[in-house]
């Protein structure tokens, strides 16, 4: 619905991964070696917002986990 409403395919992908992320967050915050679930799931080219990590201005760029793992 998001990609049809905006005419942008990546918006639909972002909405899908957002819904998956919110669904997983609702069922539990497991944690994975110090990384959030947001770092483990989702497309690598979608910009994400780390709302539970302090400042709302922390907008992560594309491929966030890749440079965090080095």
From TrEMBL:
Residues 2-30 form the Methyl-coenzyme M reductase alpha subunit C-terminal domain. Pfam families: MCR_alpha (PF02249). Signal peptide: none annotated. SUPFAM superfamilies: Methyl-coenzyme M reductase alpha and beta chain C-terminal domain. One of its GO terms (biological process) is methanogenesis. InterPro entries: Me_CoM_Rdtase_asu/bsu_C, Me_CoM_Rdtase_asu_C. GO terms for molecular function: coenzyme-B sulfoethylthiotransferase activity. This is Methyl coenzyme M reductase alpha subunit. The lineage of its organism: Archaea, Methanobacteriati, Methanobacteriota, environmental samples.
